[in-house]
Amino acid sequence: MTIEKIYEIYLRHPSIKTDTRQLQPGDLFFALKGPNFNGNLFAAKALQLGAAYVILDETPEAATIPAEAGSRLVLVPDVLKTLQGLALHHRRHFRIPFLAITGSNGKTTTKELIHAVLSSKYKTYTTKGNLNNHIGIPLTILSVGRDAQLAVIEMGANHQKEIEGYCAYTLPTHGLITNIGKAHLEGFGGPEGVKKGKGELYDYLRAHDGTAFVLTDSPDLPHMSEGIPHIFTYGTHDATIVGNVAPTEDSFLHVDLMQGAATGTIHTQLVGDYNLPNVLAAVAVGKFFGVPDDLIRQSIETYAPANSRSQLVEKDGNHIILDAYNANPSSMRAAIENFARLPVSTSDRSAASDRSATPDRSATPDRSAAPDQAPGPLQSLSRKVLILGAMAELGPESVAEHEDIVQLIARYGGWQHVVLVGGDFQKVRHPYIGFDDSKEAAAWLRSAQLKGSYILIKGSRSQKMEEVLG
Question: Which of 63, 258, 445, 456 has the lowest CB atom count within 10 Å?
Fold first, then answer.
């Protein structure tokens, strides 16, 4: 069956599912398969649950399919390629801006902020959660309704040529790379591979008369974006949209817009100065598409982070920054440095000694003798607790990158506790508390009975650091 014929079916049944546990009567079921699953085996179940059609690439046993249901099976050479081809066919029906977002850190937060801003004026569709891969992106495109005025598509990648492949069926008219950092080094083949892989979005825009939103503070992006026909800049200097972190007495990020938008100070619900570029990106995109300044400010201020991304949680008398969705050396360093600078209320400050300097395990002797002390008073750290999960997908550089994080922690000193969990943190000699997994860390946190502490919880998704809170 041709893509055109399948598209006719899709127009009658525009809800697509790839998991029978989520299937509703009238949905289309795409029987995807991978290393650990085969959707073709669930064709009969999908029909029993009321799927309008099942798109599959393996012929099921005749005995499993009722005769009257056989006409609802669509056999194709490759279900995934069919899904992506269907997304491209649907995309070609639109003459609206499609903004693609990628980068090493901050993709989802930036996407959510931009969606909030654009939705204040336009009917805007976007990626749900972090469905930003070879399956999630075509599903997102196919969720875009005919009433759409804008679409915002998040693109994740862990190897070269991946973004290029996504662009082939997303056909972005606009693009934004949040940053270039040390993420997925193993798959990309090192830092230069990251630049090349993420830069595939710029390559597409350059070749298709596209528009790029470029962070001027980045040491990489201004140069990488050269030759793109249309560029709109944002940053803390030398940009169309200029903003800086506003002084604050609380844990949240406040942003003063200095140039390009008359929003006044934007009081966000995000924790961490490292979110400044994400906010400025949302302002830039909003201004470019004509969203009024007051709506830009209101949209950003009402956005509340979720899914363990820069969330401020109050629990058991403690102030907890839950930033546990993902981690790489760039984001981990930014989170630690921001946390060290974070102001604490006078009533919470204490001259308590650094109890984290006593090793929890004899196998982790002190490897950081006489570290350089970072600027700042000790009392600003003495109520702060680091609970960090290991970083993943760093390849041969992984142990060295974890060592660098341990050295960064030591340079600040004065922590109430430091807890390092799993992965290559276990291969690094350090004087801190160490655990194999987040469940052990959760048990420690319960037993520690902390009160009035400031706690940062961060780690790669594989460490499931959100479980530390129970």
Answer: 63
The pLDDT, as a whole number, for residue 345 is 57
Amino acid making up residue 190: G
Chain mean position to CA 226: 26
Return all residues near 95 (Cβ < 8 A) that are at least 6 apart.
Answer: none
Burial 244-273 (b: 16+ CB within 10 A, else e): beeeeeebebbbebeebbebeebebebbbb
pTM for this prediction: 0.82
Task: Go through the domains of the chain in sequence order and give each one's CATH number.
Answer: 3-78 (3.40.1390.10), 94-302 (3.40.1190.10), 311-469 (3.90.190.20)
d(CA 321, CA 315): 11
CA dist 249 to 253, 271, 344, Å? 10, 12, 8
Of 35-44, 285-294, 307-316, 454-463, the range with the highest mean pLDDT is 285-294
Q: What mean pLDDT is predicted for residues 227-252?
A: 93
For residue 327, pLDDT over 60 is answered with yes
Neighbouring C-beta atoms of residue 52, cutoff 10 Å? 17
